[in-house]
Design a protein that fits this description.
This protein is of the alpha/beta class. Helices cover 50% and strands 10% of the residues.
């Protein structure tokens, strides 16, 4: 039993984007908190000729730089493989963007756990769409069969899901390739999520369609709060945001709508030009002055302390691009969402929010872009935005139903990350699984030496 009780040696390999790095590093901290080792590696941006400070996609403002950064990420394999060979771990926890890690895990005879930044619902949807996008799409309006803006029905899932637009074929093909590789060459999948948010029906659907293990361990940020000292919590809980907190304190409960389109949009704006110049490029003339005069709004040009804002009693709604980190933070705070998805998997996240669970209302995206660096050609009208805000803010049965569902999911979140909650049990189960594999591997080596 000595082998099974020893600390595990686990390598966590995140993709270089905030939505990938933050939750996987939080996973690493959860393992480390249970006395298991992890080893950080430096990203060699200078070696591949990227400008100083361009080490992840948060600082990328255009498609050309994004392409170069992707090339640099690919070159990491040349450094990581020798390191892993010389320092074999008990397990590799690899971002799903690194399918090449499957080969080295196989050579070493160790398990590879895939970390997917998507929720399991999206993975199930991508699996279900396989084949549907190859043939003539099933459309609600057959008068425009070749129009990608027509609704697209995804068949075979536990719920009838209708996407607002037909998914971009090449984007889904790329995601299908990555996910298929993961499903064929991994021990299992872990997601920054909890059982009730994806739902048992989709967990069962995934297991039945792939025969793979899946561990819902999250939201990792909330799980860390249960084990870290207060002074080591997220930096946005510290000083520096007093003016935001003061402004929110001056507002009535549930009276504020928070609007954010994620780190890609923020980084693009902040790096493009100076703060005052940037305001002139996208704010209507006199808009900020009117807000200040009427005390009706607050514009944040730098990184927003999102969890602080969402958890403030004044915040009654969140107009969001449906990035998964934003979704989990809103769910954790019990704040209903107005969904305005932009790219990659975000339109799928929207349907989990609005069609499956009902703790949000749709704005209605006009386009489905493959990346955040592409210009939107079709604008969403102010009428649609106003309609979504009024549906949530005007009161009535629908608004109360949406708010109640948001509150219910908040309580489920807290239960999942609490002592003996589903996410805590899933983390324990994963660690025990890996310990058993390490013990059996060590025993096998001893038998090989004996014979």
């Amino acid at each position: 039993m000595g082998e099974i009780s020893r600390a595990l040696k686990v390598f966590f390999m995140p993709h270089m984007a905030q939505g990938h790095m933050i939750p996987l590093c939080q996973f690493a901290r959860l393992f480390a908190a249970r006395d298991h080792h992890h080893h950080p590696l430096r990203f060699p941006s200078d070696e591949v000729g990227l400008p100083v400070g361009i080490e992840n996609f948060f600082n990328v403002t255009d498609a050309a730089t994004a392409w170069r950064l992707n090339q640099a990420v690919g070159l990491l394999r040349n450094q990581l493989e020798p390191f892993i060979e010389q320092n074999p771990p008990d397990c590799i926890v690899s971002d799903f963007m690194y399918p090449w890690t499957a080969a080295i895990a196989t050579r070493l005879g160790i398990p590879r756990i895939v970390f997917n930044t998507f929720c399991l619902f999206v993975v199930c949807m991508i699996n279900a769409c396989k084949g549907q996008l190859q043939s003539k799409p099933e459309l609600l309006s057959h008068e425009h069969d070749d129009d990608s803006s027509c609704p697209f029905v995804v068949s075979g899932l536990p719920d009838p899901i209708t996407l607002t637009n037909r998914p971009p074929k090449w984007v889904f093909e790329m995601l299908e390739t990555l996910i298929e590789t993961d499903q064929k060459n991994s021990y299992g999948l872990t997601v920054n999520n909890f059982n009730d948010l994806d739902g048992q029906d989709y967990i069962d659907y995934y297991k039945k369609s792939t025969d793979l293990k899946v561990w819902h361990i999250g939201p990792a940020s909330l799980m860390l709060r249960n084990i870290l000292p207060k002074e080591d919590l997220h930096p946005q809980t510290k000083k520096g945001h007093e003016h935001i907190r003061t402004w929110l304190d001056s507002k009535e409960s549930n009276s504020v709508v928070y609007v954010s389109f994620g780190m890609h949009r923020e980084s693009k704006q902040n790096n493009k030009c100076g703060e005052e110049e940037e305001k002139k490029t996208w704010l209507p003339k006199g808009f900020e002055e009117r807000l200040k005069k009427e005390n009706r709004g607050l514009i944040l040009m730098k990184w927003a302390p999102q969890e602080l804002i969402l958890n403030h009693p004044a915040t009654g709604g969140f107009l969001t691009h449906c990035g998964w980190t934003s979704v989990t933070e809103a769910v954790s705070a019990g704040v209903p969402m107005m969904t305005w998805p932009v790219f990659i998997e975000q339109p799928c996240n929207e349907k989990l929010i609005t069609q499956v669970h009902g703790f949000g209302v749709e704005v209605g995206a006009e386009e489905w872009k493959p990346s955040p660096y592409e210009r939107m050609e079709k604008l969403v009208s102010r009428v649609k935005i106003e309609k979504a805000v009024r549906r949530l803010k005007a009161g009535g049965d629908e608004a109360e139903r949406v708010r109640e569902k948001a509150r219910e999911m908040r309580e489920k979140t807290r239960k999942a990350v609490g002592e003996d909650g589903s996410s805590q049990r899933n983390l324990t189960a994963l660690i025990e699984d890996l310990k058993l594999i390490a013990m059996n591997r060590a025993a096998s080596k001893r038998q090989t030496r004996i014979y």
